[in-house]
Design brief:
The protein has ten helices and no strands. The radius of gyration is 25 Å and the shape is flat. Helix 1 packs parallel to helix 3 and helix 5 crosses helix 9.
Length: about 190
């Protein structure tokens, strides 16, 4: 989407909320909004704006429009109930001994949760209520993180990943240095010759 296309959308938004003089009052505000929304096609954003204006008395926030655009463009992420059914059906069909076949047929998010819980434990659990609750908690947490990341502008998401990778690298380096220091400081290594 170009800045000119967005300027027309912003003009329509300002018109729809004309009683709010603080909504997008300056060109700088419009440019800021454009920076956060430019990764969407004009048609997608325009449709999200139409829906928002039709249903809300107060002007949107950038996050409202990003969420509405992502809802229109992102790949469907199964709900907890859909994922639970998928995992349960695969466990019943493939059983404990055909784990790899079951994994090959799982959606990526369900696979990640099952890897956390353990396939053997999932298949053999005698307490389905507790298993389902654990599955739900892990699944919903991971699902929300994916949705949150989908709502971020692509460049901001890539930057977040790079920063997290740098943090993880530094944490691992510090852990190794501490382990190395602990090895050096052990009583066996401090004995006098």
């Amino acid at each position: 989407m170009t800045i000119k296309e967005f300027a027309l959308i912003a003009k329509n938004l300002k018109s729809a909320y004309s009683t709010n003089t603080n909504f997008l009052p300056t060109e700088d505000d419009i440019i800021t909004w454009y920076d956060y929304l430019k990764d969407f096609d004009r048609e997608v954003l325009q449709n999200a704006v139409y829906e928002y204006v039709s249903n809300n008395d107060f002007p949107p926030k950038i996050s409202n429009l990003r969420a509405a655009c992502v809802e229109r463009t992102a790949v469907h992420i199964p709900t907890f109930d859909e994922a639970w059914k998928e995992a349960s059906d695969l466990a019943h069909y493939f059983g404990i001994y055909h784990m790899q076949k079951a994994f090959e047929n799982m959606s990526p998010l369900t696979y990640a949760v099952i890897k956390n819980l353990g396939w053997r434990d999932f298949c053999t659990s005698e307490n389905e209520t507790a298993l389902r609750a654990n599955f739900r908690d892990i699944y919903n947490s991971k699902r929300e993180e994916i949705i949150k990341n989908q709502r971020m502008p692509e460049n901001a998401y890539r930057n977040k990943q790079a920063l997290q990778a740098e943090r993880d690298f530094k944490n691992e380096l510090n852990r190794r240095l501490k382990d190395k220091k602990a090895d050096i400081d052990t009583p066996e290594n401090n004995k006098e010759p």
